[in-house]
């Protein structure tokens, strides 16, 4: 209940009698009343003299000068004070006019003291309530401006109605600019990785009518182009009935925090990507960090070991020190570096090279230990294998039948194996550090040095030395001997090393000389045999030819000429073999023209020969050529017997050509042609039968082609 004692009222009334009456009633009601008759005096008291009044009773009609509404407006622009209007007017427009100025009350004159008193008390209550609300609002404004988070309030349509300075700073919008805009224009957020727009939290709150939080990795795009990593939450603003009237959005800049977390994450990621195990513990040796490499090396997952004692998880043998001695060394000196043996989860041994150090905080005070471990098990195994390999290589080098000598760039001997000792007659210990020239005859030393220098510049890793790979060596007793040599080079730490492998070929050269002599003798014997066979067959050919010429019967004569032709093909072959530079092979280009002309010359009829033989040299063995010679003889004989009875300009054609790996012999004449009844499969004559058998023997194919001209086509695989 409002207490009226000591409440002072300024009564503004131009009618003196009415003013006296109202003043008397109010004072009887317990109010302190001051009366003025016009607006100017009211303004003077309140603004000029700053008289303190708790309320103004303002008549609307004040005669000449300012009316009540004008007076109230000017006073209220200077000071917040409750004004209750008194008037005899009840018109709606007049009442409405006063409501635009103040809303503390409107009393119709002569309504009685009870109504007036109630209106005054109600005005006091409203004023107290407004003052309280104003105080709370100012408090909230102060809080809103003081908090470190950005705050944006919206109405139920998502339009901005309030922003604090932090929100202004982060969004780049001033409060006045933002009010009335949709919050999605002012508060623009994207995903930091995809750069795609993120749904505005205000929209989510209005849709779900619940509190929402912002997803991680969200960036606020400021109006000035700046970007801020933020976290936020949106909450609905509800009235007394529980209906949502708007949303309050609270967000804060976590860019620095995000950068720190990102830096920590990068460091953790780096530690997870190193190949060495990194283990962190406190002073009680409880594990608080265990990276991926530790998981891989020791087979323990991080979640299995966190909080447990590293002394229990990793059984460690420090080889020369105890665990307590190592810890003491770390505490006193700050670190320990050494090789240890540790056991993985499966019980298998790990050879580890560790570096254990004290871990300090930002104040440089020790807070625990960091141990970096590198698994050197494979390295130790590799070193063991290298030692074993070196031992095997030494055994191989020492057991080699060939001399192996290695020299450095200055041509000083650094390796001299057992075979080299036997070959040159020197002990290995005596030769290490000696010049290679000691093993080379004086006449060859300059040439040998030039060869090594030239080989060094080429960069080639291996090649033979000397013409045909043979040079000469010098034994300890002064004896020179032929050697076959190859040289290789490697680079070790920028220095070239050369290794020469030598083989004494004295005995082999003698053996090769004997073999060459025997081969020469064999070649002479073979040529003599071929010459004799050729002469004997020439005698047989002569006898057959003479016998044929002495015959009067044509059939007998033809048989003898055919036999002579077959022998002639062999004579030509043996003659070619006799003059051939190779064993048992003759060039196709040499053999066929010769045998072609020799066989045709046997017969008395004059025949023109036309040959088309490929230019590419082809060597065929004697057995194949012998069969081909007889086949050609049978074809020529067949032409001479049957083809040219009524032909004066007789012609025989031979074409030899090649396609891929096939050799083709095409034989034809311009005679009477091959009767349709004759085929390779059904031939009554001995000649065609012989040709068929010989073609099968040499695994060839023969066919009779009748168009456009009749011919034999023989196909051979090379």
Automatic annotation (TrEMBL):
User: Does the record's keyword annotation contain Aminoacyl-tRNA synthetase?
Assistant: no
Q: Which reaction does it catalyse?
A: ATP + protein L-histidine = ADP + protein N-phospho-L-histidine
The enzyme's E.C. designation: 2.7.13.3
Histidine kinase domain ranges (all copies): 528-718
Name by which UniProt lists this protein: histidine kinase
Family matches, as NCBIfam families = sensory_box (TIGR00229)
* GO annotation (BP), single: regulation of DNA-templated transcription
Q: Which keywords does UniProt give here?
A: ATP-binding, Kinase, Nucleotide-binding, Phosphoprotein, Transferase, Virulence
Q: Which residues form the PAC domain?
A: 214-266, 330-388
Give every Response regulatory domain span. Answer: 8-124
- What terms describe the molecular function in GO for this protein? ATP binding; protein histidine kinase activity
Residues recorded with modification 4-aspartylphosphate: 59
Q: Which residues are in the PAS domain?
A: 136-209, 263-317, 389-443
Which superkingdom, per the lineage?
Bacteria
What organism does the UniProt record list as the source? Leptospira soteropolitanensis
């Amino acid at each position: 209940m409002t207490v009226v004692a000591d409440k002072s009222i300024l009564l503004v009334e131009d009618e003196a009698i009415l003013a006296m009456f109202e003043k008397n009633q109010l004072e009887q009601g317990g109010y302190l009343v001051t009366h003025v008759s016009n607006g100017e005096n009211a303004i003077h008291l309140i603004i000029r003299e700053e008289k303190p009044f708790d309320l103004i009773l303002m008549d609307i009609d004040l005669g000449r000068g300012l009316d009540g509404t004008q007076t109230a407006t000017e006073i209220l622009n200077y000071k917040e004070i409750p004004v209750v209007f008194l008037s005899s007017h009840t018109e709606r427009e007049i009442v409405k006019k006063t409501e635009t100025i103040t809303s503390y009350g409107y009393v119709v004159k002569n309504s009685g003291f009870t109504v007036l008193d109630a209106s005054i008390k109600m005005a006091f209550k409203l004023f107290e309530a407004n003052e309280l609300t104003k105080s709370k609002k100012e408090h909230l404004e102060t809080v809103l401006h003081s908090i470190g988070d950005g705050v944006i309030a919206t109405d139920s349509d998502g339009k901005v109605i309030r922003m604090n300075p932090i929100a202004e700073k982060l969004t780049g919008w001033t409060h006045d600019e933002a009010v009335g805009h949709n919050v999605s224009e002012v508060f623009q957020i994207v995903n930091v990785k995809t750069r795609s727009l993120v749904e505005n939290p205000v929209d989510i709150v209005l849709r779900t009518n619940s509190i929402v939080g912002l997803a991680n990795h969200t960036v606020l795009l400021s109006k000035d182009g700046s970007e801020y990593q933020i976290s936020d939450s949106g909450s609905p603003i509800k009235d007394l009935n529980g209906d949502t009237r708007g949303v309050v959005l609270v967000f804060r800049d976590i860019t620095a925090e995000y950068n720190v977390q990102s830096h920590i994450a990068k460091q953790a990621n780096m530690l997870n990507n190193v190949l060495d195990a990194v283990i962190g513990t406190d002073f009680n040796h409880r594990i608080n960090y265990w990276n991926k490499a530790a998981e891989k090396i020791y087979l323990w997952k991080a979640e299995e070991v966190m909080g447990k004692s590293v002394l229990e998880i990793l059984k460690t043998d420090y080889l020369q020190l105890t665990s307590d001695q190592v810890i003491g060394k770390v505490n006193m000196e700050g670190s320990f570096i050494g090789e240890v043996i540790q056991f993985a989860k499966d019980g298998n041994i790990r050879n580890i090279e560790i570096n254990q150090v004290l871990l300090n905080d930002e104040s440089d005070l020790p807070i625990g230990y960091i141990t970096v471990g590198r698994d050197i098990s494979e390295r130790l195994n590799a070193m063991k294998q290298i030692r074993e390999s070196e031992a095997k290589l030494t055994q191989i080098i020492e057991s080699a039948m060939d001399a192996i000598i290695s020299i450095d760039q200055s041509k000083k001997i650094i390796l001299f194996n057992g075979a080299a000792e036997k070959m040159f007659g020197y002990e290995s210990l005596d030769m290490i550090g000696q010049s290679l020239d000691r093993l080379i005859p004086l006449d060859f030393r300059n040439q040998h040095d030039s060869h090594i220098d030239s080989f060094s510049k080429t960069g080639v890793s291996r090649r033979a030395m000397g013409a045909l790979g043979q040079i000469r060596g010098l034994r300890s007793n002064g004896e020179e001997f032929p050697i076959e040599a190859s040289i290789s080079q490697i680079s070790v730490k920028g220095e070239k090393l050369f290794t020469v492998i030598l083989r004494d070929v004295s005995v082999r050269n003698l053996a090769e000389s004997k073999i060459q002599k025997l081969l020469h003798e064999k070649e002479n014997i073979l040529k003599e045999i071929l010459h004799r066979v050729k002469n004997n067959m020439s005698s047989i050919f002569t006898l057959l030819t003479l016998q044929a010429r002495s015959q009067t019967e044509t059939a007998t004569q033809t048989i003898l000429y055919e036999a002579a032709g077959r022998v002639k093909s062999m004579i030509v072959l043996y003659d070619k073999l006799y003059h051939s530079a190779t064993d048992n092979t003759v060039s196709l280009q040499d053999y066929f023209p010769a045998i072609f002309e020799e066989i045709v010359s046997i017969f008395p009829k004059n025949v023109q020969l036309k040959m088309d033989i490929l230019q590419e040299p082809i060597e065929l063995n004697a057995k194949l050529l012998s069969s081909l010679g007889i086949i050609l003889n049978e074809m020529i004989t067949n032409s001479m017997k049957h083809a040219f009875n009524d032909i004066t300009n007789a012609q025989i054609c031979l074409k030899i050509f090649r396609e891929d790996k096939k050799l083709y012999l095409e034989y034809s004449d311009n005679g009477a042609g091959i009767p349709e009844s004759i085929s390779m499969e059904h031939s009554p004559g001995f000649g065609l039968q012989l040709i068929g058998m010989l073609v099968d023997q040499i695994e060839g194919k023969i066919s009779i082609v009748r168009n456009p001209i009749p011919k034999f086509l023989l196909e051979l695989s090379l």
